[in-house]
Amino acid sequence: MLSAMKNSEVAEILYNIADILEMQDVAFKPSAYRKVARSIEALSEDINELAKKGKLKDIAGVGESIEKKLQELLTTGKLAYYDKLMKGLPKHILDLMEVPGLGPKKIKVLNEKLGIDSLKSLEAAAKAGKIRELEHFGEKSESEILKGLELIKGGRQRMLLGEALPTALEIEKKLKKLPEASAVSIAGSLRRRKETIGDIDILVASKKAPKVMAFFTKMPEVKRILAQGPTKSSVIIENGMQVDLRVIEKNFGAALQYFTGSKEHNVAVRDIAIKKGLKINEYGVFKRKGNRLVAGKTEQEVYKAIGMQCMAPELRENAGEIEAALKNKLPKIISYNEIKGDLHTHTNYTDGKNTIVEMVQAAKKLGYEYIAITDHSRSEPIAHGLDEDQLLFQIKEVKEADRKVKGIKVFTGSEVDIKGNGELDFPDEILKKLDIVVASIHSRFKSPKELMTKRITNALENEHVDIFGHPTGRMIYMREPYNVDLKKVYRSAIDNKVAMEINSQPKRMDLNDVHAKEAKEMGAKFVINTDAHTTSSLGFIQLGVSMARRGWLEKKDVLNTYPLKQLPKLFRKVRL
Ligand code: DGT
Ligand code: CA
Ligand code: CA
Ligand code: ZN
User: Fold this and answer.
1) Domain assignment of residue 1, yes or no
2) Which residues contact 43 (CB under 8 A, 6 or more apart)?
3) How many domains does the chain divide into?
4) Is the pTM of this model over 0.85?
């Protein structure tokens, strides 16, 4: 295994050394280290190549002593001198150094100006918006600090689907442009669209693996190379994500099937293959006797050879899909282009960023037939919830936007808070004026199970409620779901003709796949919404559809796949 440090990483260590020396009042040396760090950052060549050629001394500012240190660092990945300097630092500096982007110098400023001396006080200051006010910091470094903290905290190792997917699609796009690549596909948990992703897996079909590998490991976003071999490489990219690339010469379908997983799915498929006298692995499907290849070019072919329907990657969790595929009874799950409108969105009336018209125009651009504006109700002071008068005023503006923007229907609405006692935050005479009412919980998450269940079912019994928003309240890695009897909630939703929301916010993804499947089996209906607070986050809808697909939902189960003219039949107060 070969591990190489990038120029930028070497430079960062030299900058850190300079900062530490400066804090110790050492003369001259800090500026010498800083000069070399800057030269290394400006190099057009890989510093590892220079080291191999014995040319480190050609770098501006490098003398004998720094040359030695660079050599040590590049060959061992460590530097004894640096470790020794670090050892002498106060504990809080060492803790804070773990935050990506923070070096001794910045930490010193944070400590002197804001008294920050721990990860905890750093987080408090960042959250209070105090760091952006410091010279040389700004809003961007504040939000980067918060992101870095989140990574360190809770030892979070998996990333959210919503974070990993755009990154992976970018890399996939670059690889697709390579003339040497005849096929490119995302694989692994990301292709299955799991809500969290361990690492990104990408497969490339090519007869020129070395070229593809060289391109991949030299992409500008690559920060570290963990392993580089003839057919597999692993790298860490700028944002800390690990990306695995495999190059396959032939039988791409077999490799794609294998590396898409899940492992549990693969194990079950293999057992069936064995029973049929076959063998399946990443190279193909083979007759056990004689080892003759029978399938491998496409996934379709692979599954067919084993006597199964080919299924969407989102279904491959060994959760019943194999039995269904053997009987030719796979569900026809909802596709990514079947959503006709978003029924849970926010504007700058409350905690959203955009105006009503901006949201409506963005929805139109997505090709939607309708959108509902559902800002928060008054009990939500943090989100600047609307009181009755403000809501009535907004209703007028929403209706005006509906008249003004042609080609899309704009519904009035509210995301009305379910209060601690199960009452809604607006009285019925207000609610009945709205086209779409989403009822959600935003407070007292810790109610005991029985109380929480009663609180929710009580709210769903209100005849004006159309949708139960983010039904379990969980926030991935941040907040557990409410303690609630979900079966009773589904039952109440079904009886009261309330749709269960699949909320597409990357952190929410709520209901999740397992719950959606459970609710569907009981007969529930769904709406996939984004809960967008900006025009761009209307695009999160794709994540919600992934979750619905993983929950085996079909088009007919999801009310906002229906065209506008059918909505009055599906929602009580919608009129056209
Ligand atoms: P992750 O990265 O933790 O979110 O999950 P995956 O599913 O992407 O897992 P990963 O990256 O370790 O491996 C990618 C795929 O390769 C996995 O979904 C199935 C396949 N695979 C990996 N190891 C094994 C194995 O030991 N047996 C079988 N049958 N398949 C495996
Ligand atoms: Ca993976
Ligand atoms: Ca992997
Ligand atoms: Zn909400």
Assistant:
1) no
2) 7, 50, 59
3) 4
4) no
